[in-house]
Amino acid sequence: MGTPANPQKFAVSVAPSRIDGTGAFAAEAIPAKRKIGEIRGETISVHEAWERAKKLERIMIVEVNERRAVDASRSADPLRFTNHSCSPNAVLRIRQGRIEIYAMRAIEVGEEITCDYGETHHAGQRPCGCGAPNCRGAI
């Protein structure tokens, strides 16, 4: 069957993040409104996703619809390290079951790629470390 096509449209590196743990960083300039790439992983039920999330401090799970989720914990895709920010430079979109990340504005080389996670299993109980002037304080 062969190797699936690389879903990354722009070079992304992984490095320590000032926001939280490890982050995804632009390894080349990314123009506004362009697809940066995708996050792939194991397809699981939403129920299984919530069970796994209960056991982990850091999760890399995205619900793609009311029944299915993707656990990217073992994925090689660098965008799985995209951290939350209350003032993000990218947006996560679910399109035809794929988890895609798009630049909201131009992103400079070396800049951390961030998304607003919105509602999470943390239910506002985990402190946010984004440092944005408009930080909500928790995710």
TrEMBL record:
One of its GO terms (cellular component) is chromosome. Keywords: Chromosome, Methyltransferase, S-adenosyl-L-methionine, Transferase. SMART domains: SET. It is found in: Chromosome. Its main location: cytoplasm. This is Nuclear protein SET. GO terms for biological process: methylation. Residues 124-139 form the Post-SET domain. GO terms for molecular function: methyltransferase activity. The keyword S-adenosyl-L-methionine applies.
